[in-house]
Amino acid sequence: MGLRSKQQFLHDLIDDREVYYRGERVTSVTDHADLGIAVQHAAIDFELAEDPATRELAVYKEGDEEYSAYYRVPRSASDLRLRSKLIEAGTAKGATLVILIKEIGTDAIFAMMRVLSRGKSAEGLERLHAFYTECREKDLALAVAQTDVKGDRSKRPSEQSDPDMYVRVVSTRADGIVVRGAKVHTSCTPYVDRILVLPSRSMLAGDVAYSVAFAVSPATPGVKMYASDFLHGGHPFTEPISSKHKMIETLTVFDDVFVPWDQVFFHDRPDLAGAVALTFVEYHRFTAVSYKLPLLDALIGSAIAIAKANGIDRASHVRDKLTWLGGYVETVRGLIELAAQRGEIESGIAYPHVFTTNLAKWTFARDFHRAIEVVQDIAGGLLVTGPSGADWDSAEIRPVLEKYFAGAWPANKRLALMNLISELTSRLYGGYQAVLAIHAEGSVEAEKMAMFRSYNAKPALEYALQLAGVADIDPAA
Amino acid sequence: MGLRSKQQFLHDLIDDREVYYRGERVTSVTDHADLGIAVQHAAIDFELAEDPATRELAVYKEGDEEYSAYYRVPRSASDLRLRSKLIEAGTAKGATLVILIKEIGTDAIFAMMRVLSRGKSAEGLERLHAFYTECREKDLALAVAQTDVKGDRSKRPSEQSDPDMYVRVVSTRADGIVVRGAKVHTSCTPYVDRILVLPSRSMLAGDVAYSVAFAVSPATPGVKMYASDFLHGGHPFTEPISSKHKMIETLTVFDDVFVPWDQVFFHDRPDLAGAVALTFVEYHRFTAVSYKLPLLDALIGSAIAIAKANGIDRASHVRDKLTWLGGYVETVRGLIELAAQRGEIESGIAYPHVFTTNLAKWTFARDFHRAIEVVQDIAGGLLVTGPSGADWDSAEIRPVLEKYFAGAWPANKRLALMNLISELTSRLYGGYQAVLAIHAEGSVEAEKMAMFRSYNAKPALEYALQLAGVADIDPAA
Amino acid sequence: MGLRSKQQFLHDLIDDREVYYRGERVTSVTDHADLGIAVQHAAIDFELAEDPATRELAVYKEGDEEYSAYYRVPRSASDLRLRSKLIEAGTAKGATLVILIKEIGTDAIFAMMRVLSRGKSAEGLERLHAFYTECREKDLALAVAQTDVKGDRSKRPSEQSDPDMYVRVVSTRADGIVVRGAKVHTSCTPYVDRILVLPSRSMLAGDVAYSVAFAVSPATPGVKMYASDFLHGGHPFTEPISSKHKMIETLTVFDDVFVPWDQVFFHDRPDLAGAVALTFVEYHRFTAVSYKLPLLDALIGSAIAIAKANGIDRASHVRDKLTWLGGYVETVRGLIELAAQRGEIESGIAYPHVFTTNLAKWTFARDFHRAIEVVQDIAGGLLVTGPSGADWDSAEIRPVLEKYFAGAWPANKRLALMNLISELTSRLYGGYQAVLAIHAEGSVEAEKMAMFRSYNAKPALEYALQLAGVADIDPAA
Amino acid sequence: MGLRSKQQFLHDLIDDREVYYRGERVTSVTDHADLGIAVQHAAIDFELAEDPATRELAVYKEGDEEYSAYYRVPRSASDLRLRSKLIEAGTAKGATLVILIKEIGTDAIFAMMRVLSRGKSAEGLERLHAFYTECREKDLALAVAQTDVKGDRSKRPSEQSDPDMYVRVVSTRADGIVVRGAKVHTSCTPYVDRILVLPSRSMLAGDVAYSVAFAVSPATPGVKMYASDFLHGGHPFTEPISSKHKMIETLTVFDDVFVPWDQVFFHDRPDLAGAVALTFVEYHRFTAVSYKLPLLDALIGSAIAIAKANGIDRASHVRDKLTWLGGYVETVRGLIELAAQRGEIESGIAYPHVFTTNLAKWTFARDFHRAIEVVQDIAGGLLVTGPSGADWDSAEIRPVLEKYFAGAWPANKRLALMNLISELTSRLYGGYQAVLAIHAEGSVEAEKMAMFRSYNAKPALEYALQLAGVADIDPAA
Fold this sequence. Notes:
about 475 residues; alpha+beta; homotetramer; four-stranded mixed beta sheet
């Protein structure tokens, strides 16, 4: 108890969960040609706890109990730093793709712990603690379904022509609630043990039925998962990452799903919805920047390597671009390090510094496409005109490619790097990461709003008023 | 004579050309599942001349002769403008993908006409005119093979450890020359009638064997084409463009290919190599910006549409982004219009204004990735988490998608736009266009060098010296 | 009649106008140490008409009548182009500082002509024509007072706690109106013959008293001008421009000023206020970009010269920066050229293409500070640590400066360029131009709004809908 | 001993130092109308040690000895942090202008200590320690003269046509050396106790005479200081900072100056020149970013205040700009905090993390002009068209200004803020800071080179090679 093996994880996924992929119901996610790759990727979580190189980071020992360090409630800035390092290490092992079967779930748990600890719902807090303890002790994998499908974005939940555009409580029973609606962009849903469902925004009094947070098993009747096929397929030559590493997002439909009371953390509470939504995102952006670091390292590392392979590493414009890239990557890394260090405590739970976390995320997001551009620039047009995996596998063709695609490094090295860069920047995986850079964990605009709200303007404002000799004005008036 | 039908074009492609794709020799490019799509796309060229809507633009009447307007030698700024309009119209019909089976070939011919008209090679000019006349009268499709594989980029052609890293003359015979080497990024090679081969850079005295320009038929013995598979596959739901429109690039190998004298425009002429390489690119960048316009229109058009479909078109940040996008697109359009208007004449042949053309291309290239980012930002994360074509085709699943993916517009419209944007920005086609934005028709750095060289600094420099009261200095001293 | 001499212009400025400068009433603007420089600068307008080099551009011959070409009503794209050239030539003669005593006034007249020609006020149109004819025949100098002081920007005119925050009609008499309020940023007011007063924004029904446009002489009782001293002083060594060229802005107060009916173009017309305000700005932004060109040429020209003078013109980063600068300058120039070419006609009056004009202005404005940065970067720290004019004038000190400030060019040339650049970028004149870049002729935000409103989205939107296969939707619905 | 009073500092400046200003020899720097302001500003250094609010930061107690904390040799990351805080506090007291009479001098001393501790010059190290001890014990003020006048930048010191373009040893005597040449941009020279002279670049064997470092008193015969007048004058209304705070830079000429051996730290040592030049700059950039923070706070603070004063603080574009500004300011602050934390030790002396320090400086420098632009944008055109100090002082005019320049805040507050912003961004002080942002402490290009050299590429490069499956290549080969 406390740590599951990879085998147990895979075994526990076999149940009646209703997953659809490419038009068909999936009978077994672990055995499925495409989804199975995603499952194997998720299982890296359990390898981390077994691998001696990462075990210390991945396993937490509290008294006699050992459990997954993802479940360690952060109590200090140092705990936040260790959590960040763990997430980075897991993603590095995942070849730049985050694992995400515990990171996001614990983000949600810690966020709800903080909000519910403010004395607004003793019962909810108790249920949450029980849920947390179960997850930790059983070493469960969790998905978080937050983003509602939202319908017309210019309207509030209760104003939509179809009332199911946000997940809502359709009826209350003695033993629990019945929910309906759908969430999008839910990562890893087909291969986790529990789905945590949170509101995606602040709610007004009129949106009371939409103010609900709960957990369900994916095998619960009425839960239906429609999986995206964005990253399907791939040859190891041209898709060195995504042929082995995938993450699956679903449209997660709640078709009048019954949730017993002990899995309901709150309902009919517009006063809690926004706080939980925002607090979750504060943790989750810290997670996000932590897991972006291997991707950024892969970009700059492959740019340096291909510059050498092409023989252009001494060109002044190449050095200039690599310098910019290094500045970009290290600013993101430095800021997330600071966000942990500046972490603060509420109800005994540490949280990353809100402004600095959002600053880190915004810094990452606003220049990611430029980073892509710079790496493509250094690599060359071969990113999209290079040979196929079948060409490379052909004994007749390969010698031609080896001769003509040699640069300052041999063709096999150069093409391997070119294909890595092509995946990171111009194939489906690159497109996936680019869209995630802008939209995952809240949009760039949301990050900017969070920065605006959390910026501590007082010292600078007072200093300016003093310099202008008008310190006697009350800026809030 | 002068205009071929689409059927003739397809028929004429059937010969012994040696094309390899995905590890195998292709028996018929027109019938091939993937390559056949590219052939059909290329055939749009011939539809332009048949379609009443485009016929006036696509067919030029000179006396009694009617021929493809691509072959019209530009004599004035107005001719350049018409040529630009034709290229734009062809690409719009190609759903943002350029046709390119005559555009690039005539760019090369016009460039060589200008350079050879400087009195440096009467014989070469004569052969070129004969070649041009044949192409025009037979309405031939042309590829241009310019970019050498280049090996170690820090070394000149004659310094490479393998002398075949640039295409070169290996021997001279009484009836012609024998060439060896390979070109990359050659577009459309498998489905044209002639391949024009040009040097890719300026040459020094030591690089004499590499200073050669000639034409061959793709069916010539020793010519081997290894096709990239970058844009293979695709479902019409998720790949509305590339499931119907493709362009194929090849590694084009010259394995001791014999070229008779009448197809050799020059050889052993380092003095001509650089001039032809540069002059070709001047024309070709003008072509390039002309054919980028439909892509840019598709980006801004789809961004406006998805903003409405999502219900966010009144958000101030969305308006701000659309305004930037409109400014970007229209600056590119305006500058290429100016480049034609400012066109100048040499030896009776008009050429687009060099600085303005490069300015237009650079303006396009340096903000293309930001444009992608902006469109993705407005569209949303559904770009990479949306349903597959098979889901949409499923009678069971589609109603769920229709319910939950509705926005301010119905789900079918919204998803169609989302998939269009996904193709343009985050799927393979988007990655292809992004890399082309930086590398096709010369890199961004090459464009900047061309701008630096062609900028007319005199008026500004003299004005500044006069303002500073130091007009008596000779700035060149 | 039709053309005044410079002497007449200066003579006609002698009257009772109430001008304040540095805390004191100015007795004669022409004789004043600081304001006199601005008057001499304004007089360049009349020199243009006398100078053989510019006479053709500056004087228009219509039948037997000769008049200042600024007063030529544009009837075609070609007229707009000539107007742009004239404004550029005047500013070039003004050493990068616009003359502005006819440019802005005719912008206002042409704008009102267009709006009033829409059949909304026959009487107003008649008065305007009479006013225009008088100005043209007497060759008058005009200021335009448009920007109200505005008070609290979050409130409309009629919502302000002090009703005088926008110029308003306080009473109507049989012979005219009485106006009160103040305008800011009024250029050249102290040394013109007439002040044209326009509304600065659109008005609602409640703002009726603020919906007024009229003309007054600066000597009218109650008109008081409080001149800014931003550009005072300067030594010819360190301020080669502003020691000889100035423009004065005033706070222009209307202290219950009576305006006879024949000088009132409209009043109590909220329906006209916004149209006139916007249409004026459309003309004025075209004027603005035209007069920015000499400033941009001075920046790039001095950057090229100082790079040579410093001996760094072959450094790759310097070339890169100069290339960017050239691209910036020539994009602005190209777009304003296009804005004229694309000019359209209303009621027989040509107006520059609205989107392209705003695009040009926005392009200028959004990168101006970066241009400043680039030029400072190339010039060096000497911009702010160099010797004073008195040092240079000292026979003892100058030899030391000549020895130690020599670069690749002699010290006198290098320091002259350094001082020119310092004035353009880091002294008061540079600060003045930088603020003007953002705020003059409407803010950058106003330009973006104009771009958003005038962008013709239809072709791009239709193309995108067609590519997505959803051309059947009505995007306006 | 150990701490001087402000009075002592002022008293000790009275000697025969040869200072020239505005064409004339200055008889007393402390009594001079313009230079006296700079002296008073410098004296803030001594007020810091007296003021109870800053005394703890400004005075270091080592055993029984108390001395200025600037002289504390940093031994740990924590010491670096305290040093940064001290520099920030001093500059805040200096109203955004750094004090710089000990900061830069100790940067130079610590840098030479590190380099000379590498065992290359026991004698030099001993002299340096003696010099350091004297400075600390006498609480001396120091200038650092590093930047040579450099002549033609494309040539090395020994290649210049005039051999005095870099400071050099012209003869060696038994008791010392004689030096000739000139340094520029030397801050505070006229009012310090010692001038430290360092090489400005790496030297080759041929540049041996230029490889010299020493100290002199400003009163030494042959030392001549030609002061810039960039920040002269100013009214407290329109120049709230520079009317009270100035810094003076000089051209510092060494006209065959004799330096005794005990003040010579090394000479004829090309092997030390580059190391000292670079190491000094590493410390000095850390100092620089520390002292930029009050300036950045003043910019964002005044932008927030003026947005409120204008009544536009709720406009979405204003919030967007303030958010960007906050992100910029806090990234700089965060990175310099990290640079201290990541500090490393050499020979017992702590130094700030080189890459992070340069990253902080580059981040500051590359967006400073944009920050200026944003603040000007929010403030408005009144920055350059506002009333003069004399207007404000006039009892007749002030009521008019009070009425018409009121915004959401009263006119006196609003104009005070406007003038503060005008000084920071568009008057001479703003121009001075803008040029310093690019050029002080080495140019932006120099910072980029330092980043490129100090970036630890190994982890990212190895990760990329591993992802590409080519970890067996040696990237250095």
